[in-house]
Recover the amino acids of this structure.
């Protein structure tokens, strides 16, 4: 990937450097690795993580949980989104359900999920539940945004029902699905890691964070946080790339 | 042969658009229906096209015909290129190669060769409407319905599109029913011109122009006189 440094990029780079400087100053001020380790030490810890034999297993498990939760929420979300987008009664019925799911604090869901599921499934369930409303709402908006006149045109020219769905409905809602997926993943990753911290599955970034915190390895807590941020960033990039591929037709 | 509508009745909300309305169209010609906005022109097209059901009335000759519709707005799929938009209306029973050939010919006739792979968002309003016209001609229809497709275009574009349209029409002379409120468009394109008033719609004037398209000029005495006739009828 090519990165061109424009004026704005320089300012963003300066912002990152400023954050590092503030971090360094604070770490000098506290002068204790148990409160805030220095950026260099944290960087070294992060790099050692990559070398750890269990690293891929841990990260892979968390990513797999995220993806499973995401895929379930996308499938469910597209289904309910189409239903609520096409049928105002279904919309009226499901709206309170979605509002409720969205308003429940993540921690309440986790506490309940801890009782209902095994530790490995808790984060998947949390991820699914936090991501699902975004997909549903966006698909539903997408369906409602479809230009009825295009449908009249296609029907007039006797285009088959199956082709109208494939060539008119799906491309029309695609940008909405992608933007829903983007917001969903942004929230979803965080929820999954909180789920892991509290449910303590054998493998998982959250588990590692919790362990590190217990032993006051603050540098490791931050290092795992950096890993989590990088994963989230990578997925965001992938979604943006996908979006770009899917909506070339926009001006 | 003619296509006929007899004793058409249609109410929309509280407005009576058609009450015992009858009209006939000569096959293989362009009939222009001229009238003020709100007189029921578009509704008439939608009834002919089967988009709207009439309250009652008899239609002869339409049912067994295939119809294309050039809408007032181009109604192109934004995620399909010029070529794909034209081919969209071709059934999959037509082989891909044949579809490409049909769209290719029309793209050429419509002078869109340089824009084959363009998405509608990259085209001007006039070009989009040309794609919509090409799509209507690509569809294997007997009748083409047109609902003021030139509305909102400037005079130069309008004349250019009329020139391209009449050239295209000459290739297979389909029956065209063309609705407009623009007298010049009617004079340049119509074989038969029907002036409507309403609602409820009533035919207040019928004119036939026998002049071939390439000989028509808005500057000629003949068309100027006709224009005056039409303007007077519309003024009522």
């Amino acid at each position: 990937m090519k990165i061109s440094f424009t004026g704005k990029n320089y300012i963003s780079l300066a912002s990152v450097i400023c954050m590092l400087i503030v971090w360094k100053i604070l770490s000098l001020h506290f002068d204790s690795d148990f409160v805030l380790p220095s950026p260099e030490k944290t960087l070294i810890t992060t790099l050692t993580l990559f070398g750890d034999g269990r690293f891929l297993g841990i990260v892979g498990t968390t990513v797999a949980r995220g993806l499973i939760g995401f895929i379930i929420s996308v499938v469910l979300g597209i289904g309910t989104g189409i239903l609520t987008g096409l049928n105002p009664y279904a919309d009226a019925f499901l709206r309170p359900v979605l509002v409720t799911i969205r308003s429940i604090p993540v921690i309440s869901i986790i506490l309940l999920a801890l009782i209902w599921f095994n530790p490995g499934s808790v984060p998947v369930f949390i991820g699914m539940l936090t991501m699902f409303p975004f997909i549903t709402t966006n698909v539903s908006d997408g369906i409602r945004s479809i230009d009825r006149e295009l449908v009249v045109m296609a029907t007039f020219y006797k285009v088959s029902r199956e082709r109208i769905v494939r060539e008119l409905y799906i491309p029309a809602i695609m940008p909405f699905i992608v933007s829903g997926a983007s917001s969903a993943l942004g929230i979803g990753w965080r929820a999954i890691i909180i789920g892991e911290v509290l449910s303590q599955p054998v493998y998982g970034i959250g588990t590692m964070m919790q362990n590190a915190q217990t032993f006051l390895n603050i540098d490791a807590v931050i290092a795992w946080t950096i890993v989590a941020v990088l994963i989230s960033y990578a997925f965001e990039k992938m979604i943006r790339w996908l979006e770009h591929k899917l909506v070339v037709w926009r001006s | 042969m003619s296509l006929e509508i007899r004793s058409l009745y249609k109410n929309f909300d509280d407005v009576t658009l058609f009450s015992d309305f009858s009209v006939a169209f000569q096959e293989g010609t362009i009939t222009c229906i001229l009238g003020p906005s709100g007189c029921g022109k578009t509704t008439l097209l939608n009834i002919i096209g089967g988009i709207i059901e009439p309250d009652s009335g008899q239609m002869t000759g339409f049912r067994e015909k295939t119809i294309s519709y050039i809408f007032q707005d181009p109604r192109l799929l934004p995620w399909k290129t010029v070529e794909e938009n034209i081919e969209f209306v071709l059934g999959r029973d037509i082989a891909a190669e044949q579809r490409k050939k049909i769209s290719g010919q029309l793209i050429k006739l419509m002078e869109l060769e340089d824009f084959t792979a363009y998405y509608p968002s990259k085209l001007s309003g006039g070009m989009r409407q040309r794609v919509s016209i090409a799509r209507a001609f690509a569809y294997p229809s007997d009748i083409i319905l047109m609902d003021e497709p030139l509305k909102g275009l400037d005079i130069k574009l309008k004349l250019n599109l009329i020139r391209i349209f009449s050239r295209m029409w000459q290739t297979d002379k389909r029956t065209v029913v063309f609705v407009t409120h623009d007298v010049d468009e009617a004079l340049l394109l119509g074989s038969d011109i029907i002036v409507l008033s309403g609602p409820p719609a009533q035919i207040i004037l019928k004119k036939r122009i026998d002049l071939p398209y390439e000989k028509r000029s808005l500057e000629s005495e003949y068309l100027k006189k006709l224009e005056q006739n039409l303007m007077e009828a519309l003024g009522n």
Remarks:
- The first helix of chain A runs from residue 7 to 30.
- The two ends of chain A are 23 Å apart (CA to CA).
- Chain A touches chain B at residues 147, 149-150, 152-154, 156-160, 163, 167-168, 171-172, 247-251 (CB under 8 Å).
